[in-house]
């Protein structure tokens, strides 16, 4: 089973990146071997089901759902599906003159193996690009570039080096708690409570949380509180800023004002006045 779409390569263009091809496959016979220098573009491959293998540094690595590999231009490539549990892979090949520097500045180097803790948004971004090209071809370059950038942004923000990746169980411990933490964000925050819920120490909980979300637990709670308070500032104008601060989990209105100003660049009162004028 296979779906794929190919585009002409544009040597001159004004975009950060453009796709050369994008697709999806599930094939027990799938196998790729490219010598160094054979392919002059970047590629991202995301495993969404099954199992396959990638050879790097003289070793065979077994890849499963949520694993990904990224090749830089001109790298040698060797990867293939498991025969008994064929992998399902979404992929894109793309190019851009400044992409190497863009990736390196964000800690994404030419080591191919990565783990994507929250891989569903990346899968959806890859699917969106494929659907766009199947329906409309390559004429709407701005939209195509935007969709390709969405893929890269999801990868860059989620990717964890494969050697540092933890078990899927550890990933799930955090992702399963996030909706509850968001719902209870305005209550007094108890780090040990959430660590106990995850079944780990508070120190290890913070490490898992940072790798899964790129935020500390307290930063996540703060952002949730500010998100709620912004809604209340505009939707409940009868409440004073002090009342909203207390409802958001800040007994001190001055501390609430300080955190709001740091995050939004204006005070809660200024925010309310700005948007309620509309």
Description:
GO terms for molecular function: DNA-binding transcription factor activity; sequence-specific DNA binding. InterPro entries: AraC-bd (IPR003313), Homeodomain-like_sf (IPR009057), HTH-like (IPR037923), HTH_AraC (IPR018060), HTH_AraC-typ_CS (IPR018062). Keywords: DNA-binding, Transcription, Transcription regulation. This is AraC family transcriptional regulator. Residues 172-274 form the HTH araC/xylS-type domain. With 278 residues, the protein is α+β, with helices and mostly antiparallel strands. The chain has two domains: 2-163, Regulatory protein AraC (Jelly Rolls); 166-278, Homeodomain-like (Arc Repressor Mutant, subunit A). It has helices at residues 99-105, 120-136, 141-158, 168-183, 191-198, 202-213, 217-235, 241-247, 253-264, 268-276, and strands at 2-6, 18-26, 31-34, 42-49, 52-56, 59-63, 67-71, 77-81, 88-95, 113-115, 160-161. The protein has a seven-stranded antiparallel β-sheet, covered by helices on one side. Helix 2 (120-136) packs antiparallel against helix 3 (141-158), helix 4 (168-183) crosses helix 6 and helix 5 (191-198) crosses helix 6 (202-213).
